[in-house]
Design a protein that fits this description.
Shape of chain B: globular
Helix content of chain A: 55-70%
Number of strands of chain A: 0
Radius of gyration of chain A: 19 Å
Shape of chain A: globular
Number of strands of chain B: 0
Largest sheet of chain A: none
Structural class of chain B: mainly alpha
Oligomer: heterodimer
Distance between the termini of chain A: 15 Å
Number of domains of chain A: 2
Number of helices of chain B: 9
Chain lengths: 185, 198
Amino acid sequence: MSALTSPAITRADGRFLAGGDRHMNPYLAGFGLGLVLLASFLIMGRGLGATAASGSVVAWLVGLVAPDWAATNPGLKGYYAEPPWINWTFYLIVGAFIGSLASALLARRVRWRIERGPQLGVPARLALAFAGGAVAAVGAKLAKGCTSGQALTGGSQLNAGSWIFMLAVFAGAYALAWFVRKEWR
Amino acid sequence: MILPLYGYELISDAQGLLVALVLGFGFGWFLERAGFGSARRLTAQFYLYDMSVLKVMFTAIVTAAVGLWAFSAAGWLDLSLAYLTPTSIGAQLFGGLLLGAGFIIGGYCPGTSVTAAATGSGDGFLFLGGFVSGLLLYAVAFSGLELWANANSLGALTLPQVFGVPYGVLVLALVAMAALMFAGAEWAERRFSDMRPR
């Protein structure tokens, strides 16, 4: 069993691991996710998204020290107009945090961990997680959406730009996968 | 026609925020159920031995796409009231490449990093921290990109418009394409099963 376990995980029950079979059937999970997305369109006339929640927090924090800059910067002013407490996506992500936690608690999957392949140290993994997040943020901001706001939402609307985005995401990740394989395997 | 409810002002802004909490709960629930709080499971998609990302994503897209078409064809949903992100080809191509790079380097995308962090992943928290920092970096250093993307915007543009094909026909083509991709995904998982770490 331990062969599958990343070094940071000590409990040898195999949960959280790539390809573990204790999860919901992916087609069933996708169907559930699709119904949530559809409900969002039917009720709110908009899909899901994750980027704007962080954007709203960043713009609000920046606004505390430099309100004029936050209100005029092209990358912030849209977010600054909607601080977290009135930002729809912020509530969505708070809900997602609670829903993820509830699901994992029921499945007894909540555990402090730092996931990585056996050949990578913890500091390196954390640095790469941070760097990856920063690169993803620049991409999501430029593309006006991420895997949720563009790929899922725009994908189901047959939005032309969203399909370009989706193909580019897969292309970018596949192109780099070989170079970072030791991070995961 | 009464849908979307918010577009017809049948629910208020405050009720909308409550709806967001409930929808978000379902969003997070299914991401976690699918195992998407795990960076290794997510990135396995790019080593071909676990294609869950593709299966979950495209099942969700097909489900919502068929539903949107059906509700609008039945005359219950006014699709013109659903927000469509403007298309800007270069920005979405380049932004998508960057997001894909961030995904394979960091192990998550923005939504799944929330699921990871919520269930105790330190690397999930760091990804979120990096994401927030990246948005700030963008505001400081890349505002010019934002102006370029907006200047080259084509506005709301859908694939039925691009190809000049009726909406329902394209939804049908999407279902057929997804079925082929699922068959390919099942094949790939068998073919590349030896890539799985052991």
